[in-house]
Amino acid sequence: GQLAGGCFLSSSPRLDALRDRLANEKEKKNPKPEPSTNSEINENSGKTFAIETYGCQMNVSDSEVVRAILLKDGWSEVDALPRDIITKAKKSQPQIIPPQLTLINTCAIRENAENKIWERLNTLNTVRKGDKYSLSDQGMVGVLGCMAERLKTKLLDDSAGGIVDLVVGPDAYRQLPKLLSTLRRGDQETAIDTQLSLEETYADVAPVRAANDGVGAFVSIMRGCNNMCSYCVVPFTRGRERSRPLDSILDEVRNLCEQGVKEITFLGQNVNSYHDKTSDSQGSYSSTPGFHNMYRLREGSGWRFVDLLDQASALSEVKEAGVRLRFTSPHPKDFPMDLLHLISERPHLCNQLHLPAQSGSNHMLERMRRGYEVDPYMALVARAREVIPGVSISSDFIAGFCGETEEDHLGTVKLIRDVGYDMAYLYAYSLRDRTHAAHKMEDDVSPEVKARRLNELIETWRTDVTARNLATELDRTHLVLVEGDARKKVEGVTLTGRTDTNKRVLFTNIDGTELRAGDYAEVRITAVTGHTLRGQGLKRSSIDQWASK
After folding, report:
1. CA 164 – CA 139 distance, rounded (Å)
2. What is the rounded distance in angstroms from the CA atom of residue 57 to the CA atom of residue 52?
3. What's the predicted TM-score (pTM) here?
């Protein structure tokens, strides 16, 4: 999981007695606390919140929607309580005043992701119950997102520690002002809304981003998933697929260009199955040859994903501002030939594809209900590399799914070697209740075997990617989007950025040129460290200049 921000609201009636006791004891210990200028101190007694975001890019995007809704409702955003709050609170002389509301936007895709949320909730619970910590107001805690949708009222049970006051699923964020008003008035001690929607896309909510660095931004174009892979809980925590109107997406892209953003990533649980049914376009659905759909109702008029990329990459604002467009996370079944050709032809569409394979065994792919076999997948990889020269390919893999044999595992090892992925996201299988696998299969691969197989997949990919980068990247020149200063300035390296193929590059500045975040530079690769590249800046450039070569 990735911590991206922070969020808290006002008080709950069941904490009044505790707060009174804390206040009396603190007054005895520190009758006149000195004011502090520390960023952890918030003197604002009004509605304050912080958002902590865990998990995928979609959660980051959702937190931006939540931020917009709360700011419009009169809330003010402040810093979240630090991760080491217990240590800091013990040492603190001035009182640490938390936000009145902490919202934790959660991930439920794997058990480990939820464990991180429970660890954070336990920390907040310790702080809330411990009168020895110099906290003047405990605030409320809300759980948002997929874990909220999966566990629902269980998060409000005493068995959960009594720390959670508010539970809101990913389709109910518009209800936050109403739910919070109910809690602040004391009408009830807890509040919950986990109703999934067949229509909600938040298309009319302008996201408010936490950090305006002018480089990258996410744009959510669709929500939910209809694929029903047997291991995946997303259809049950995010609901069915529905897409934003294309015009609303283009408007958001234009606004981001005006704000100086240089790279926009279109987001969706199955992003390339985008289908704007509100339009009267006569486009039809076309899948990848050799792949089939678990969900049959994909026909009908309306703009498709290729139409969105076509129109977005043709915007004058995108061209004039020099903006790159990416997308994630796709399904390999939704890569028709016209999409591959469009990516090849448009310089503002990045030459990078994420093709989640999950396994290299036909037996496992069938049990996973992925809708394809290894041969059609390999054919897709070959077509992509033929149509898009120099394309980088990444993938997801699961080690130790239900019924996986050693032969199945070796098939995945072989697929990783045969394809040669530029990036791979590898995980041990984690059983999720409500899924097809939880109902129909046995999680029969031991944790020890899962761990061993996962390590073998990781080592296979690492060895392969290092060898291929050494063979193909040295002395190659890339157009790199500067993201900022390098964290570690060693051997002349001062800047960090990403290639069009989404590879990290640490590089030296150009003599006599001051490059900044958002600039483009041509960089010659001089060294390889695993999947990270090092290089020498050659000259300032642009997408159009690079494409004209």
Report:
1. 11
2. 13
3. 0.87
